[in-house]
Inverse folding.
């Protein structure tokens, strides 16, 4: 039997039982749409997370206190809540003298309520030098960043995040020039940051207060060490070379001769991007694999319905065999019907999954205030079509073989 005859015959049979065909396809539709949604949202989440890391700045080498045996951004000591004080001003001075390094910006941080009149919000406050804004790509939407003179003079000035500005001052009042209270210290707001989202170390950079590092260290925290040091590589040097220079300089400064005993951890921006990319890819595939379970359930449903169809159409099978249809013809007809059910279900699932992904994108951008990209990867579509076709063949083969094996005499006598 020619393939076009098989397709026309299968279409006629499926149209004859429209409701049953739709219900049979439902499992495939749900399974395919689930795979599409999870892969698309996973790809969008990966873009968002990597974009936040790239927002740290360009050509950055990140140094955090505490040794590490496998190069993680959070050292074992920090993960256990142990305060490590290995990064000091002498390290910043030593790094600043190296020609392969363009800039060095140190950072201390803590948490405290920030208040203005009757409004209050718990925030992360960052103590930084004046070059922090340039090195870390922190743009100021309103006002201006504080200067090196503000840092050296211990001026009580602050730059705040956009979300914090909205929380404390609303949309009617201009925060610049106003005073907020953080840890019983009044700060005059000189600038409001552009929207940044969640950045390094899991900190919401829109709900933050940035103050001169001199004020943060001496008056707010009472410490002499740093929580991290960001090193901006000179564009004339390879980033890996700069990373090795940073390690050498800090080991010399700390009197360390064995690299396995380093009391600091160094990461480049590419290290972080690679690690996060691997994690998000694995999570996306894991979620897609879980969603694929519904495809198995849908395939079993198709097999059950096709077995029922074989029984109901026993006399038809006998009649077709009596006029010359071979076992292969009967096998092909039922197999084509099964594949058509799954392929049509796959197409509907792709369309439904795309609609859900678009709705999620719209809701996140509109109501969550997050710049979320709309990702609809071609790989997800190809996977959906391939899986639906394979499901149709795999779960349609047994019912098709059962139909092909029926004796024409017995089939014609079936009531």
């Amino acid at each position: 039997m020619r393939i076009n005859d098989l397709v026309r015959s299968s279409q006629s049979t499926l149209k004859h039982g429209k409701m049953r065909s739709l219900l049979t396809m439902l499992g495939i539709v749900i399974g395919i749409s689930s795979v599409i949604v999870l892969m698309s949202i996973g790809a969008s989440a990966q873009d968002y997370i990597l974009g936040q890391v790239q927002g740290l700045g360009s050509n950055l080498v990140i140094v955090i206190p505490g040794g590490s045996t496998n190069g993680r951004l959070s050292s074992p000591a920090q993960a256990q809540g142990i305060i490590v004080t290995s990064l000091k001003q002498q390290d910043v001075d030593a790094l600043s003298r190296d020609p392969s390094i363009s800039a060095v910006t140190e950072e201390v941080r803590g948490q405290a309520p920030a208040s203005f009149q009757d409004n209050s919000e718990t925030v992360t406050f960052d103590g930084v030098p004046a070059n922090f804004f340039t090195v870390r790509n922190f743009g100021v939407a309103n006002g201006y960043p504080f200067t090196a003179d503000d840092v050296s003079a211990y001026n009580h000035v602050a730059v705040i995040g956009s979300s914090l500005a909205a929380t404390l001052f609303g949309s009617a009042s201009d925060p610049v020039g106003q005073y907020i209270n953080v840890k019983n210290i009044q700060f005059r707001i000189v600038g409001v940051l552009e929207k940044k989202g969640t950045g390094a170390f899991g900190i919401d950079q829109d709900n933050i207060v940035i103050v001169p590092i001199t004020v943060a260290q001496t008056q707010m925290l009472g410490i002499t060490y740093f929580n991290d040091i960001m090193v901006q590589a000179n564009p004339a040097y390879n980033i890996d070379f700069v990373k090795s220079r940073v390690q050498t300089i800090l080991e010399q400064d700390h009197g360390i001769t064995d690299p396995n005993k380093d009391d600091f951890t160094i990461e480049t921006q590419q290290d972080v991007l690679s690690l996060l990319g691997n994690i998000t890819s694995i999570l996306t595939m894991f979620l897609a694999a879980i969603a694929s379970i519904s495809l198995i359930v849908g395939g079993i449903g198709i097999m059950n319905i096709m077995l029922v169809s074989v029984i109901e159409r026993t006399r038809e099978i006998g009649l077709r065999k009596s006029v010359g249809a071979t076992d292969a013809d009967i096998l092909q007809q039922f197999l084509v019907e099964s594949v058509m059910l799954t392929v049509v279900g796959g197409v509907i699932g792709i369309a439904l999954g795309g609609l859900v992904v678009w709705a999620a994108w719209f809701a996140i951008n509109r109501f969550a205030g997050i710049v979320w990209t709309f990702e609809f990867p071609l790989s997800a579509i190809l996977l959906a079509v391939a899986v639906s076709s394979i499901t149709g063949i795999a779960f349609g083969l047994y019912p098709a073989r059962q139909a092909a094996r029926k004796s024409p005499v017995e089939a014609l006598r079936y009531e």
In short: The first strand starts at residue 60 and ends at 65. The chain has a mean pLDDT of 81. Residues 3-53+274-413 form one domain.
